Amino acid sequence: MLSTLAMLLLGLTTHSHAEQVVQFPSMTYRLSDFQKARAKARGDSGENDPAVVISGYLSKPIGEGRHPAVVLLHGCGGLSTSHRREAEAIRDWGYVVLVPDSFTPRGIEDACVPERRDRAPRVEDAFGALFYLSRLPFVDPARIAVLGYSHGGGVALRIAMQTHKTLYEMPDELRFKAAATYYPPCEILTEPLVIPTLILIGDRDDWTLASDCEAAARRQVGGPAGLSLTVFPGVYHSFNFPIFAEPRQIYGHWSKFDEAASRRATSELREFLEQELAGSSDRISDPVR
After folding, report:
1. Is residue 148's pLDDT more than 80?
2. Per-residue pLDDT at 288 exceeds 90
């Protein structure tokens, strides 16, 4: 089973014509004056430990000027060819896409069981990716979204519930504009959302439960940011990845591709990104080939 997991979820491919490997530091916490003073009293420097350097795959669409961007977060099995194919599709809609690899730099094989679920500080990696993108001359820093799959969807939900102003060593005005998720663990959604959020999940998902997302959506009614939830009937985990055309179990949970649900989810994701990242007179269209 572990070899199957590695083949399906951890494999890498050669670069596409528009993809390049980049590196950036994971974001570090902002230490208060009190924390710095206590550290110095202990004989420490009073500064943060060096940030972990994260590798990522950057795709740039055709066209000049500043583009909106998406940080794409992989699932619990690590970065896969499926995630990178998703990134290519989103790039072709007109977005810069950065796919961080949170596990390889830390020697993590996967985070698919409870005892390994929180080993990587992935929120910090996502904010590191946000900061990196904001400094690129072809990215509009005011139009960057986070997109997460499964475990990465949980990371995106955590980001959607918080602001970073007092947490991270980054400019106060820099933030994600929206969050989109495929089959995230909605039980973590316990606080009000602060940015618009999309959740796409199947009602037969036995890894991340649609009922948790429905309960979370009810709690978010009237909150400061909108939550859009689509529950696909008869659909399982990983429904948008054709590699699961033959249903299979991983760590006791079913994954199964569903072409109709995948097409509808893709359409909803595209519409959500257009709505949240493009102005009313600045719709995003397919690039000219």
Report:
1. yes
2. no
- Answer for the pair 56, 98: CB distance below 8 angstroms, yes or no: yes
Please, what are the domains in the chain?
2-277 (3.40.50.1820)
Q: Angle at the Cα of 260 (from 256 to 262), degrees rounded to 5?
A: 65
Tokens of 63: 């066209």
Kindly report the average pLDDT of the chain as a whole number: 83
Q: Which strand ranges, in their side-by-side order, compose the sheet holding 227-232?
A: 19-25, 53-59, 96-101, 67-73, 139-149, 178-182, 197-202, 227-232
CA distance 52 to 27: 8
Q: How far apart are CA 137 and CA 90, in angstroms?
A: 19
Contact 253, 206 (CB under 8 A): yes
Nearest to 147 by CA among 105, 214, 93: 93
d(CA 208, CA 233): 14
Q: What is the pLDDT of residues 160-198, one digit of tens each?
A: 998 655 577 778 789 999 999 999 999 999 999 999 999
150-163 pLDDT, tens per residue? 999 999 999 999 86
Whether 199 and 58 have beta carbons less than 8 Å apart is answered as: no
In angstroms, the CA 147 to CA 286 distance is 20
For 160, the 3-state DSSP assignment is: helix
